[in-house]
Amino acid sequence: MPGMRPQPMICVVDVERAGRWYRQVLGATSGHGGPEYERLLVDGHLIMQLHRLEVGHHHGALADPDRPVGNGVALWFATAAFDAAVERVRAVGAHVVTDVHVNPNAGHREIWLRDLDGYLVVIAES
User: Fold this and answer.
1) CATH of 9-57+71-125, one of 2.60.40.2140, 3.20.20.80, 3.30.565.10, 3.10.180.10
2) What one-character DSSP code corresponds to residue 73?
3) Is the pLDDT of residue 81 over 90?
4) Entry pTM
């Protein structure tokens, strides 16, 4: 395990609904659960966090609810089980932005989609 790991947190309107979507699409499990905050795990490792948009907890608001979320952000996930991930994307009926293709720069397959809140999600073959 590297000395530093990313643990992105995004603000969503409905944590429980978004958590179900991400668990299905990414093959993740819940590490917390609840209406205000969720930790998503793959193989026991935290891969991302979901936070309810208008809840400030101990740190104050994380986002302005009057502005669009995720502008300019791509949530990028690499997996060795790419074909299984694509099957999960299709089973959920996710909004696919760019279907499976080979990234000419990286030389691997990718699928680009939008989550329930409009964030751009990329699943790439590792």
Assistant:
1) 3.10.180.10
2) -
3) yes
4) 0.90
